[in-house]
Amino acid sequence: MRISMTHSLVLGLALGAGCTIDNGLKGSSEATGAYNPPDLSVPKQVDEITQVTVPAVDVLFIVDNSGSMAEEQRALRDNFSLFMQYFTGSGLDYHVGVVSTDCDSPRNKGVLVEDSTGGSAFIDDSFTGEEATASFQQRANLGTNGSSDERGKDAAWAALVTNASSSSAGFMREEADLSVIVISDERDRSRDVTVNEFSSWMTSLKPDGATYFSSVVGLGNGCVTAERGTGYLEVTDNVGGIEWDICSTDYASLLDQLGLQAAGLKNEFYLSLVPVEDSIQVSVTDPEDNVTDYEAGADWTYSASRNSISFLEVFPDPLSVVNITYDVLSTSGDPTVEQTDTAAP
Predict the structure, then answer these.
(1) Axis crossing angle, helix 251-262 with helix 70-78, rounded to the nearest 10
(2) What single DSSP character describes residue 33?
(3) Are 89 and 125 in contact (CB under 8 A)?
(4) What is d(CA 246, CA 257) in angstroms, rounded to the nearest whole number?
(5) Which distant-in-sequence residues (6+ apart) come within 8 Å of 229 by Cβ?
(6) For the chain, which end, N or C, has fewer CB atoms within 10 Å of the first or last residue's CB respectively?
(7) Contact, 95 vs 171, CB < 8 A?
(8) How far apart are CA 94 and CA 84, in angstroms?
(9) How far apart are CA 85 and CA 79, in angstroms?
(10) ∠ at Cα 241 (53, 219), nearest 5°?
């Protein structure tokens, strides 16, 4: 449409005189021009995991009986009552058995050691505390004349699989958690089962329960009386459990921690999402609602490969809640999940 000079002049005068033109736009210029950036904040996740106990547990000790193990066997026997305090009178349905690392003779390979009474291949909840300790001390008194070709994984495999329907009948139960504890100052020389085969078997054994493989071995830290426990430590890394320096003289603390874990108390807790590692904060709320904060490095460590935190010196008490707060690195999964157990995802 052509606008005449007259119309243009009138329009200009109208604007100059302060006339208002309704252009159909509503709202103030301030509102329409305000900066409205997207929310780019990192999502925060809180995993609340309840520490629980289990009604049944099977514990297999694999004890090196080669020529250099006299002192370690004695320390194990002398402190075993600290292990058993978490079982006797607890209401737990438990089995505790012992085998040696000597697999040279089929007569000994993975065969549960009996005590002097010969009444049972393993200790169970029918024993009193004193009876259980005395029985274990006899079973763990294996001597030092065993083979120098230590084969701990082979011994465990024989006890739990090969002999399951013969000498080990009734020891390992489908409904019970399983804890395997090897004590040796040498590397593993097993030939029947590899690290990967044994690890895969243990991790798939209890889909609704827990399995642990603890290594009381040389850690390769310069101790001259123990070789690094190669072949054992890798299984512990894959399955989960306690790694302990066999050169340490503090067997009291060792047996205390092993007892806590075997009885169903956890020290490793899995995160539901992938965290920004530096953002992880950990606290524990006990059954009386008292909250304790724990410090990274001093009290717990994070494993990226397992996406879990592990307490170093403590086990949260039964029915306490472990609170793990962190910034989410990956948003895969359900950010509102609340965990109630510690099984690996």
Answers:
(1) 60
(2) T
(3) no
(4) 14
(5) 182, 184, 186, 187, 188, 215, 217, 218, 219, 246
(6) N
(7) yes
(8) 10
(9) 11
(10) 150
Q: Domain-by-domain residue ranges, the chain?
A: 44-50+268-330, 56-262
Contact 245, 223 (CB under 8 A): yes
- Read off the amino acid at residue 46: V
Q: In sequence order, what are the residues at sequence separation of 6 or more whose Cβ sits closer than 8 angstroms to the Cβ of residue 257? A: 242, 244, 267, 315
Tokens matching residue 331: 């948003």
DSSP-H helix ranges across the chain: 5-16, 29-32, 70-78, 80-84, 129-139, 152-157, 195-205, 233-239, 251-262
Q: For 56-262, which CATH class?
A: alpha beta
Query: At 107, phi and psi to the nearest 5?
Result: -70, -25
